[in-house]
TrEMBL record:
Signal peptide: none annotated. The lineage of its organism: Bacteria, Pseudomonadati, Myxococcota, Myxococcia, Myxococcales. Keywords: Membrane, Transmembrane, Transmembrane helix. Residues 68-120 form the HAMP domain. This is HAMP domain-containing protein. The chain crosses the membrane at residues 12-34, 46-70. It comes from the Bacteria. InterPro entries: GAF (IPR003018), GAF-like_dom_sf (IPR029016), HAMP_dom (IPR003660). Pfam families: GAF (PF01590), HAMP (PF00672). Gene3D superfamilies: 3.30.450.40, 6.10.340.10.
Amino acid sequence: MNAFIEKSIGRKLLLAVGLPSAVIAGAGLLWLRAETAHLSPHLAEAVLAAVAVLALAMSAAHFLAVRLLVERPLRSLAAGMRRAEEGDFLFRMPVASRDELGQLAERYNAMLAAITDLHALRLDDARAMDFLQREVALKRELEAQHRLLDDTNRRLEARLNELTLLHDLGRTLASTLRLDELLRYVVDHLGQALGYERFVIFLAEGSGDLVAAESYGVRAEITGTRLPPGEGVAQAAAVSRELVLVRDTARDSRLQGSRVADSQGSLVALPMLYKGECVGVLDLFRPVLDGFSAEELQLLQSVASQAAMAISHARLLEHALGSEQAAAGG
C-alpha cells in the first residue's frame, strides 16, 4: 500500500486531503445521528444517506480535480524528462497553465533549449577540432613532402656538382701528358674545387716504395719522402688495392710519427688503380673524427680512378721519350 501511494503525487494529495475529510465527515455523521435519533429514526437515516452521498460526490470531484489539474501535468513532465534522458533534447513541454506546474514546464523547456544550444556548440567545436586536426595533419604532410623535396634537390645538386667536377677534372687531365702538370691539376682540384685541406699524392715505384710526389696543406719537406713496403696506411691501401679508412687516427699505430695525420682526426687512403695496377695512393686527412661520408668516398674513388689513368699515360709517354732520347744518344 505504501509503494502504491509513494509512486503518485496525486494519490498523496488525495490521501492528505481525503483522510482528514473522511475523519471529519465521520465525526459529523456520528454527531448528526446522535442529534436526530430522538426526533425520527427515518429522518436520521435520510440525513445520513444525504451526507454519505455528498461525501462520495465531493471525493469524486476531488479525485477528478487532482487527476486533471495535478497528476496529468506531472505525468506529462515526467514523460518529457524521460525523453530528454533518452537523448531527445528537441522535445518541448506543452505549457497549459500559468501556475507553478506551468512555470516548471517553461523552465524545463528553457533548460532543454540551453542543453540543445550547448550540444550544438559541442558539435560545432568537434567539427572545428576535427577540421583543425585534418589541417594540421595536412600541414605536417606538406612539410614532410617539402623536406623530402629539399633533401632530394640537395642530393641532386650535390650529385650534379660532383659530376661537373669529375668532368672538369677529366677534361683537364686529358689536356696534358706532363706528369708534374697532372699532379698539380689533381692538387688544385682536390684542394680548391673540393675543399680538402690536407692531403698527399704518393706515386708507386718499381721497388715497391711510395714516394710523396705532391702535397697540399702540409709542410713542403714531405715531398720526396718515401714509404717502404709495410709502413703506413698508404702502403696498406697500395698492397690491398682497396680503400683504407681510419676513423680515429689516434688509435691506429700505423700513423705514429705521420706528418700528414699529425693530430687526432680521420684519414682515408685511396689506391689509384689502372688496369689492375696501383700507380699511387691519395692520402687525405681531416682533423675531425669519422670525417668522411659514404658519398664523399665514392667521389674520391672516382677522382682516384681518373688520376690513375692520366698518371699512367703520362708515365708511358715519359718512358717512351726517355727511350727515344737514349737511342738517339747511343
